[in-house]
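quick one before i forget lol
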Amino acid sequence: MRIKLIGICLMLLVSCETGHQEYSIEAFMNTTTIGGASFSPDEKSILIRSNQSGIYNAFEINIDSGITTQLTHSDSNSIFPISFFPKDKRFLYRGDQNGNEIWHIYVQNENGSTRDLTPGEKSRSLFSGWTYDEKSFYYTSNQRNPKYMDIYVMNIYSFKSEMIYQNDDALNFADVSNDGRYLALNKSHTRDNSDMYLYDVQSGNLNHISNHEGNVNFNPSSFSVDSKSLYFLTDKDSEFKYLQKYIIADGTIIEIQKEEWDIWYSYFSHSGRYRVTGINADSQTEIEVFDYEKNRPVRLPQLPAGSISSVSISKSEKYMALYHGSAKSPSDLYLLDVESKKYQKLTNAMNPDVNPEYLGNAKVIRFKSFDGLEIPAVYYKPPNASSKNRVPAIVKVHGGPGGQARVGYRASTQYLVNHGYAVLDINNRGSNGYGKTFQTLDDQAHGEGDLDDCVWAMNWLK
């Protein structure tokens, strides 16, 4: 495809194929954003958030019928549902006041009444998970001191809370062991350097467990189900983050999983049978689910073009809730029956008035920049573009420092593609996701090599 570049945008005339249909920007913006997936105690429904009402509210999807029921009806403040209660259909949600981001945790009872569980005009509270006995939940809050997020546990029957860690060192809380004894925390010093700590709730001792020299990142991921080990991510002696296990009893460290890309996260299902791992593989999320009972990976369903971005496993481990999206459609929620391998689509996020045939697929490509360095980019090609039908093109540059252009639905991008513009969304040097070295190439040099990468994109587009 021959393209003439003028500045960043190519301003050639577009000729449209017969039958091609163009849509307004409003049509591309008129999608539904969905997130979250909490199974009800009987595993007959799933709690999600959705902005289909015009603002985020809580909704419940019946698994058998597929019927969606709106549970909250806010028209001013967004409501972000967190989880059903472990034994009943009350649920927790997070909300603020007029977008001030001073989050509180609320409970909505089965009769629709609500209660603020973490009141305080200036107190910010964030949910951090249920206790393994399902009688309480953990949360962080700055109610004691606005500078520090302390760690609390709240009983769900009395709604009385207790501070279990006074966070005067401003550490980041990552996870708590199932027996409630250990807290995993970390401290970020710079983008490239962080430390990891283990706090013993019984003894009150805070142990530094990531002694190192130089720039190395250590990020706690999750405890083992038996509370004997801590899984964590590190990039020690590696371009990319990989998964290791720290044995609490003696400090032994064991490598668990290493990929050619950054591992983003890894966590266990309720019983520990499954471990879910998310990998940032070349601007796309790859999900791996390992079955320890059968000692093999779980084969996830072959859904339509796109990728699975997250997995939530029900307590019984009978179901997996999967979010799947593509360049042509926002993420939708699917339900997988683990044993039968049957799946069903539970939501429809894309505007039904937009025909995906008139949108562009995404392809990860690479081009050589001024110094020979390969620069990755996500390329969106109009469906009517060909060697005989030249089209204009736009080089799209993500924000930073850092950041990453990723494959996914972007309303503005698909609007341009639908109207005959090719879009090259580049990951210039300094972007995340392509190793430590690549990310540091524009340190103290912004507007130099990274800008040249954007200009040199024209050579690939010609």
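fyi The domain at 32-345 is CATH 2.130.10.120 (Methylamine Dehydrogenase; Chain H).
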